[in-house]
Amino acid sequence: MAKQKLAASLDRPVRDADRTRTAILDAATTEFARYGLGGARVDRISAAAGANKRMLYYYFGDKERLFLAVLEAAYARIRSAEQKLSLLDGTPIESVRKLIRFTWDYFLAHPEFITLLNSENMHRASHLRKSRRARSLNSPLIATLGAVLERGSREGVFRTGVDPLQLYISIAGLCYFYLSNIHTLSAIFGRDLAAQAARGARLKHITDVVLGYLRRER
To answer: Which of 49, 66, 136, 203 could covalently link to 24 via disulfide, CB atoms 3.0 to 4.6 Å apart?
Structure first.
């Protein structure tokens, strides 16, 4: 019993540290997504996390490194979710459809991911360029998509020579641009592009465009 109590007491600081670090990271994600790197304030982040600034600096160093940690965590979440798609289990066409639908739905469900990327692009990816973790997170997806494309080519349903990186950028871009600019596009063209019917039409358009490009001509 004494050993169990000792073990529990030793585990508690670790659990408390993990909770504090997670709370700071969650609060920082919200703050950076709302205000960008320049407008974010450490005082607001620490207050929202229920932690003092000393703990924030202890775990993350400074605001710049905290921003990088937020970006890395955001990429880790989307890549973890993508891995659950099991893209190698279905037919090539089904797998590409699944990836398009996932990307669209993920961007819709996580608008903070879009705004975080917008902020980092304003800084010319100066933070992500320092991150080996971010690069390692992206590599498996491109390799998996490459395997899907190669299988589709062998089976005669996809054209040959498609670069999986270019294809992924096209899929992400077709989703990203629409959603990141949805308010200005709606205002300019006088249509509610955020309406459910409009979003459904956009997803169908993206899918048709991508599969139309990939399909081998008979």
So the answer is: 49
85 and 53: one domain? no
Q: Which residue has the higher pLDDT, 3 or 13?
A: 13
> CA 213, CA 159: separation in Å to the nearest integer?
8
Tokens representing 68 are 């990088």
Range of the domain at 54: 1-61
Q: Verify that 7 and 53 share a domain, yes or no.
A: yes
CA distance 11 to 14: 5
13 shares its domain with 107: no
- Both 127 and 84 in one domain: the answer is yes
Give the residue-averaged pLDDT of 175-195: 98
Q: What pLDDT does residue 7 have?
A: 47
My answer on whether 180 and 202 are in the same domain is yes
Outline where the chain has alpha helix (H). Answer: 2-39, 42-49, 53-60, 63-83, 92-109, 111-122, 132-154, 164-180, 182-189, 196-214
| Same domain, yes or no: 182 and 148 | yes
- Supply the pLDDT for residue 186: 98
Radius of gyration of the chain (CA): 21
Report the C-alpha gap between 179 and 130 in whole angstroms: 28
Amino acid at 112: E
Instruction: Summarize the confidence of residues 47-65 as an average pLDDT.
Output: 95
Dihedral Cα 16, 81, 68, 33, nearest 10 deg: -90
* pLDDT above 50 for 8: no
